[in-house]
Amino acid sequence: MDLSTADPDTVLDTLDRRLVCALQVDGRAETGQIAEVLGVSARTVTRRLSRMQQAGVLRVVRMPDVEDAAVGALLLRVRVLRGTVDAIARALSDRPDVPFVDVMLGGQEIGAVMLSDTGARDRLLYGQLPATAAVTETTTHAVLHAFADAGQWQAGYLDEAEAAALARPVPPRPATPPPLDELDRALLARLAEDARQPHAALAAAVGAPESTVRRRLHRLDDAGLLRTHATVDPRLLGMAVDANLWLDVPPGRLAEVGTALARHPQVHGVLATSGPTNLMAAVFCPDHGGLYRFLTDTLGPFGVIRAETAIVARAIKRAGVPLQRPGAAR
């Protein structure tokens, strides 16, 4: 199931939002642990999560390795002719190496993140996109450093003690990623579809003993490869405005500003980039007034030289999960 079938009139109450936040902390947290931390019954947790998943408003997946692949990942800004945005957005969304696709307000720009090898990158940038008459301009920014990505954002319905109780210890990343065999790749592929699958279900799916699956997942977790993303329409969490801010920051303050923005509760991604601007921040705001206050009150003191604000009209794909079919009513 993808989230494009979700009922747009779905309403999440406070407990639903707290459950989503629990999965934002740890997408594989056990039902009993969530129930204990939030002070509700395990049956309530199971029922509420099942309802949201069956309604198509919540999906938990393994986070694509944006952080590990930061150097070499690309941020694309694709300008298209009016009326052609849906076809181009669909083509990008269908690519497995493009986990994030947004249509920007105005309908003439698509934003996307591409994780790919040099060959696939060059075929897209120098062959496929230029050969498409609907594409008028493509701007490509290389990611130089990831301060925070979408897998680290939390909507703020848990207090610090609750979030800490749900968080798993983060082991130091190994200097050299461990080699992956066929079983590792099969497990990661299954978790990319549903990160909450229990060990028994994973074992049955990949044809391995459950004890082996447990050991492999522990090793993959130690290597930092089991980060999760609770994919949900931010409007259901009280965030009606999604915007990408392209910032020109004095180089001497780049690390300071990027680190500070990564800690801000409204920010769901901060990347240092190549190009005419050197920092991109993705932010959720309750409304346009909230976005104005973020620009003036949060960015103002950082001495940002220039800020371009691009508002997301439709999120098409997030963390590899289709949220909406291009062209679908919203």
Write the layout of secondary structure elements.
Elements lengths: L13 H12 L5 H8 L3 H13 L3 E5 L11 E7 L4 H9 L6 E5 L4 E6 L3 H11 L6 E14 L11 H7 L15 H12 L5 H8 L3 H13 L5 E5 L8 E8 L5 H9 L4 E7 L5 E7 L2 H12 L6 E13 L2 E2 L8
Antiparallel strand pairs: 1-6, 2-4, 2-5, 3-4, 3-10, 5-8, 7-9, 7-10, 8-9, 10-11
Structural summary, described in words:
With 330 residues, the chain is of the alpha+beta class. The chain folds into two domains: 130 residues, Arc Repressor Mutant, subunit A; 159 residues, Alpha-Beta Plaits (2-Layer Sandwich). 35% of the residues lie in helices and 24% in strands. It has eleven helices and eleven strands. An eight-stranded antiparallel β-barrel has the order 2-4-3-10-7-9-8-5. The chain has a two-stranded antiparallel sheet with strand order 1-6. The chain starts with 13 loop residues before the first helix and ends in an 8-residue tail after the last strand. The model has no long low-confidence stretch (mean pLDDT 89). InterPro entries: AsnC-type_HTH_dom, Dimeric_a/b-barrel, Tscrpt_reg_AsnC-like, Tscrpt_reg_AsnC/Lrp_C, WH-like_DNA-bd_sf, WH_DNA-bd_sf. One of its GO terms (cellular component) is cytosol. One of its GO terms (biological process) is response to amino acid. One of its GO terms (molecular function) is sequence-specific DNA binding. Keywords: DNA-binding, Transcription, Transcription regulation.
